[in-house]
Design goal:
Leucine-rich Repeat Variant; mainly alpha; two-stranded antiparallel sheet
Length: 1236
């Protein structure tokens, strides 16, 4: 049978189907015939044709069951033209000749004018008046007697029969013809019943338009005929009745324009509002907001003069819903569009602050984005009215920018690695493209091609910022700044929007730099090299927000920073702004402090790449002058104190980065000499000689601030500055210029010891006190820093985190210069670090102090537990810390004190069993765990090498992270951290070698490879992995608590799934036995919960059962592994699979009754009828025998016995099955089975 063509068929497919059709000889669905010419007397297709006429004939395609004329779309009779019948047309006639024949001159048209017969038309003369001209109508004159001049009132209703006049008839006997027609109509009406008349009248009314209906109703109003009254009633039900003047609530006056037509929809607005709801209800109601974005309760009664009741739905409730605001934003009235956009901006601001979280169901921001808010704001930006455009900019700023997030980032800029930040990218969601399935890698579309193929809506749904960039937001913002030149508030909003776009990613920052004339406009208008203090406009004055935009753009990468400094003239701006004091900049005091602070930060970012260091030499006198004023802190009552502190912190951050860059000068100089032409960064223009002079001054400042801690008025300011000084001293890591006497005479450590014993700070313990967070959407992520100043956290002003970090870095630098100084650091200092959770530098102290101090070594196991907790917490950008933890602490014998202090022996004694019956157990007992642990401790260096090998793919990230952590500025490419996709190591990282082997061999080869066919070193890697897991399970159980027991069981199952005989190897078998015994004794093992990474545990168990049937050979370990999920407390699905689909495995499950707890398999009694039937069938047919599978044999026998002889009431189906089993028992020949 021939198939029909499909829309997806190509041209080759169509040609192939055509050839197949022609070769098959099947009859076509449509036949081609020639229509005969009747005027020439030609016959149809069967008669002969003349050869000369064949070229002029047309082929006509006829299709079966297709009518010649199309059916009418309406019940009205088809219209016929009076002129078409008089025209004679021919099918072979040329269309051009026909057009020329009909397109005649106007004289021919005028010559055919026929005069109408007016002999029977009555002549009416105008009425005689006593005035020469009609009286002029003045609408201002009022008259109480005037009626509405509408269609109905202008008609004179006469209660009489209206007959057909016959005015259109011509001839002498026109009146007789009229009467004859009338008599025929009367006869037809008398012959029809009343129902037939009504039916015909309905058909007639249905065919008339609105104007004809009005004329019909006015002309056929008959009040003395009951029949016509019924007809009129039918008509009024079909069409809306026209209200008369008496029905109006307000009497219209003649001077009121356009009051001749009644509009009931508008009159509804004149009614009184219903009473608002007085009592609360649990029913969900639509949220309504006032113009300030405040949510209005449903029971609140607000006055109408506030303008909050102008909506159709729920008119008694004040406020506007989101849907009504969206509708109002498309109004033709400018004020309404502006008001709606301003209200949406206020709602977004409150939603980002989390004010609606506790009172509204769902997310307001997500609802607005799903409704198309981005497109609404983008279209509003193109509005020609500046007020509407300004409101749209403000709303877009409220959506994208969180002011407290920016404040939090500014506050942490001077911390250790405060220059770095994560890109604000949405979490990556992999989408499966069905079009690429089955194609080669070379044929598949690249990520860039897929991104270009997506529509604006799809891109915005996944990433709001990327969607705005795709909608050409940057050119529009450039036009607003350059051409429109809006108010100062709009300019600030635009600069903040650009800053948020630059924080999105390095590619977004590059688009901001590449936008034509955008950055040139910002530099020339808002960062000029000279300005007038009397300027009345914001244009022409330097703005701190513009300088901050440059700083965020520079953070995105080394190349972007170089473009700003050199191509756009940012270096010149830094010289102009920082060469003078803030009070000499001819700006407001607050703005001068802000812009110099941002200038220092931009310079610090550039120095973090090893750039703009020549500027340090040029402005060294100005920097020294600014540094001398740092020790004179302003009083706390000064309103400018916070801004001055931020300026001091930015200056110290700049000096820290310059010092880091100077520390690389010697190494780069040596590398340039020995590189021999290889690529090497050029040495920076600054060296140690340019920065050593700052050390004495800064150390004096530090000692002064420590002394000021006793002064309550100076304490807060000193605590703010001390951490930055400590971070600066850490920059002396590459040299030996920081002797011990710098710290010896400083009471720093003693004061820290006293300070941290008098206060407590914990983010984990105060988690309940943290308020509800703001609304965070998937396509518009944020930092969730709303209210960070007033809640406990690492960034709060009361947080000890920056101080502890600075102290730890300083101590690490000191001990790195001379390890003998470590004896001056007491145990209490390390305890402070431990209990205050300053964990990022703890590993260095432990690695240095534990081998040297016996008192600290007593707590080595505690430090080891802390390191294991920290490891899966570290985020991208800290790969070097992960490498250092794994290399120094995690696998170190010094920190696993149980391995050399009788730990294995203690495990053996604790698990010793003195009962003789346990000796019958042929499988390894818990007594072997001690020997396994002893062997694992010996293999710790090899275990460390195994895990570091499996993490070799992080080598490039480790190098980048090392350069950033150690301050190797000339090698740093970007201060943007990698995309935040989660921790560097997963929580189940101890299973990594085993999972890696399963992905390489088990998935691709179906677990059929032998050990010899596995990748080289696979057996050793699995052995080391199992040794490490056993060590953690016994001595570091807390470290694996983050992994669910079902996840542990699923991951250990890879031992059986990745190879056909790996589990038979002796070291693997012994270690797996030990882990199996430790995991099965836990009651928390719940196999009904799907393991992370799997859809359900049943899928994993099906693979295990299939592998058991194929390669197990009745191995006891594998048998116990597949028996565990068959316990009574787990899902019935797995037992149904074994007794239904995998009955063959019952012949080899030879686990004895002594090896398991039978109560777990037999209690409570089984209640699944299908499973009971399978139990009974396997027992009766001999599929399940005691000699083959003792455990399941006893379990099945117990459940069937309990079911058959149960006395509990049950459903009819259950009773029927019970009696059926009981009858079949009498036919059994197995005496052993009958005895039970």
């Amino acid at each position: 049978m021939l198939r029909r063509p499909k829309p997806t068929d190509s041209e080759a497919d169509l040609l192939r189907e055509q050839e197949h059709f022609l070769t098959s000889g099947a009859p076509s669905a449509a036949s081609v015939v020639r229509r005969p010419d009747k005027r020439r007397g030609e016959a149809g297709e069967g008669e002969g044709r003349s050869g000369e006429n064949e070229g002029s004939q047309r082929d006509v395609v006829t299709i079966e069951d297709l009518p010649d004329q199309l059916p009418s779309l309406t019940p009205a009779p088809p219209k016929k033209s009076r002129f078409k019948a008089s025209r004679v047309t021919f099918e072979d006639e040329d269309a051009e000749e026909r057009l020329d024949r009909h397109d005649t001159h106007i004289s021919a048209v005028l010559s055919r004018i026929v005069e109408r017969d007016t002999s029977s038309t009555p002549i009416s003369l105008p009425a005689f008046t006593g005035m020469a001209f009609p009286k002029v109508l003045h609408r201002s004159e009022t008259s109480n007697q005037v009626k509405v001049n509408n269609i109905i009132s202008s008609l004179n209703f006469k209660i009489s029969y209206q007959l057909v006049s016959g005015q259109g008839l011509q001839g002498p006997d026109s009146s007789g013809e009229t009467m004859r027609i009338h008599m025929e109509n009367q006869a037809k009406l008398q012959a029809m019943s009343q129902s037939e008349i009504l039916e015909e009248q309905k058909k007639l009314l249905f065919q008339l338009d609105a104007a004809s209906k009005i004329v019909w109703r006015s002309c056929f109003w008959l009040t003395n005929c009951h029949f016509h009254l019924q007809c009129y009633a039918v008509f009024t039900t079909m069409d809306a009745s026209v209200n008369t003047e008496e029905d109006l609530p307000v009497k219209p006056q003649k001077e009121w324009v356009h009051m001749d037509k009644l509009e009931p929809e508008k009159l509804e607005w004149l009614r009184d509002l219903p009473e608002p709801r007085r009592k609360g209800t649990k029913k969900a109601m639509q949220a309504r907001f006032d113009f300030a974005g405040t949510l209005i309760p449903p029971t609140e009664d607000l006055p109408t003069h506030l303008g909050l009741h102008h909506h159709g739905e729920e008119p008694e409730r004040a406020g506007y819903s989101l849907q009504e605001l969206f509708l109002l934003s498309r109004s033709q009235v400018i004020q309404q569009r502006t008001l709606s956009l301003s209200t949406l901006a206020n709602i977004l601001s409150k939603a980002c602050a989390g004010e609606y979280v506790s009172v509204l169901k769902g997310s307001v921001t997500s609802t607005l984005l799903d409704a198309g808010l981005l497109f609404l704001l983008r279209f509003a930006l193109d509005d020609s009215v500046e007020g509407v455009m300004s409101a749209a900019v403000h709303a877009l700023k409220a959506l994208l920018v969180c002011a407290e997030d920016e404040e939090c980032l500014d506050c942490t800029f001077s911390w250790f690695r405060g220059l770095s930040s994560f890109p604000l990218l949405p979490s990556a969601q992999e989408e499966e493209d069905e079009e690429d399935e089955g194609l080669d890698e070379s044929m598949k579309e690249t990520a860039k091609e897929k991104e270009e193929r997506k529509s604006d809506h799809e891109v915005a749904r996944q990433d709001a910022v990327k969607g705005l960039l795709k909608m050409k937001l940057l050119p529009r913002l450039r036009y607003i700044l350059e051409v429109v030149r809006p108010s100062p508030r709009v300019v600030q909003d635009v600069l903040e929007i650009l800053t948020r776009i630059a924080r999105h990613s390095s590619s977004s920052a590059t688009q901001v730099l590449d936008c034509p004339r955008l950055m040139e406009t910002v530099m020339s208008e808002f960062l000029p090299t000279s300005w007038s203090p009397s300027s009345q406009s914001i244009y022409g004055l330097p703005l701190s927000s513009a300088m901050k935009l440059l700083r965020v753009l520079a953070t995105s990468g080394r190349h972007a920073c170089a473009r700003l400094l050199n191509s756009l003239g940012a270096s010149e701006r830094l010289s102009h702004l920082l060469s003078a004091e803030p009070n000499e900049l001819l700006l407001e005091p607050t703005e001068s402090l802000r812009i110099t602070t941002e200038a220092y930060r931009l310079w610090a970012v550039a120095a973090g790449y090893g750039q703009a260091c020549k500027l340090y030499i040029d402005l060294y006198p100005a920097l020294v002058t600014a540094l001398q004023s740092v020790h004179r802190l302003p009083p706390a009552s000064d309103p400018l104190q916070p801004l001055q502190l931020q300026r001091f912190l930015a200056l110290l951050s700049l000096l820290t980065q310059v010092t880091h860059t100077a520390g690389c000068h010697q190494e780069l100089q040596a590398g340039m000499v020995s590189s021999g032409g290889e690529e090497c960064p050029p040495p920076p223009p600054v060296s140690w000689g340019h920065v050593t002079g700052l050390q004495t001054s800064l150390m004096g400042h530090l000692k002064g601030f420590i002394k000021n801690l006793d002064d309550p008025l100076q304490k807060d300011g000193s605590l703010t500055l001390i951490p930055v000084y400590l971070v600066y001293l850490e920059a002396y890591r590459p040299c030996t210029l920081l002797p011990g006497r710098c710290i010896g005479g400083c009471p720093l450590l003693h004061w820290f010891n006293v300070f941290f014993h008098t206060r407590s700070s914990s983010v984990v313990c105060n988690a309940q006190a943290i308020p509800l967070g703001p609304e965070i959407t998937n396509n518009l992520p944020g930092l969730a820093c709303m209210g960070w100043r007033n809640r406990p956290g690492l960034v709060a002003p009361s947080s000890p985190f920056p101080l502890l970090t600075g102290l730890g870095l300083l101590l690490e630098t000191i001990t790195g210069i001379h390890k003998g100084l470590s004896s001056k650091v007491g145990l209490t200092v390390l305890g402070v670090f431990l209990f205050c959770c300053c964990l990022l530098v703890l590993y260095i102290f432990c690695f240095v102090y534990v081998p040297l101090d016996s008192e600290i070594a007593k707590h080595a196991s505690l430090y080891h537990q802390v390191a294991l907790v920290v490891l899966p917490w570290l985020l991208p950008g800290s790969e070097y810390l992960v490498h250092e933890l794994l290399s120094t602490i995690v696998f170190s014998k010094d920190f696993i004190s149980e391995g050399h202090s009788g730990g294995p022996e203690a495990v053996e004694l604790g698990e010793l069993k003195l009962h003789e019956e346990t000796q019958k157990d042929t499988s390894p007992s818990l007594q072997t765990v001690g020997a396994l642990l002893r062997e694992a401790c010996v293999q710790l260096p090899s275990i460390r090498g195994c895990f570091l090998t499996h993490l070799a793919h992080l080598e490039s990230s480790v190098i980048v992270s090392r350069d950033a952590l150690l301050g190797h500025n000339p090698w740093i490419k970007s201060h943007l951290l990698p995309e935040l996709t989660g921790p560097i190591l997963p929580s189940d990282w101890p299973f990594l070698p085993l999972l890696s082997l399963y992905e390489q061999s088990g998935v691709s080869d179906g677990g059929g490879l032998a050990v010899e066919e596995l990748p080289q070193g696979a057996l050793q890697a699995v052995t080391h992995c199992l040794q490490w897991l056993l060590l953690l399970e016994v001595w570091r159980e807390e470290a694996l608590k983050v992994v669910l027991p079902v996840a542990k069981f699923a991951r250990l199952s890879c031992v059986f799934l990745c190879s056909s005989d790996l589990f038979l190897e002796r070291p693997v078998q012994r270690l797996t036995w030990g882990l199996f015994r430790l995991s099965t004794k836990l009651d928390s093992l719940d196999l009904n919960v799907p393991p992370p990474g799997l859809a359900s545990f049943q899928d994993l168990y099906s693979a295990l059962v299939s592998q058991y049937e194929a390669v197990s050979f009745g191995d006891r370990l594998f048998s116990c592994w597949v028996l565990l999920p068959l316990q009574r407390r787990y899902s019935t699905t797995m037992r149904l699979a074994v007794f239904g689909e995998h009955v063959g495995m019952l012949r080899s499950l030879g686990v004895t009754l002594e090896q398991v707890t039978m109560m777990a398999f037999t209690s409570p009694p089984e209640d699944s009828l299908p499973l009971l039937r399978l139990y009974f069938r396997s027992l009766v047919t001999g599929t399940l025998k005691r000699s083959w599978c003792p455990v399941l044999y006893v379990a099945a026998l117990s459940h069937v016995n309990s079911f058959i002889f149960s006395q509990d009431a049950a459903a009819q189906e259950v009773e029927t099955a019970r009696h059926s089993m009981l009858r079949k028992i009498y036919y059994l020949t197995d005496e052993v089975l009958l005895s039970f």
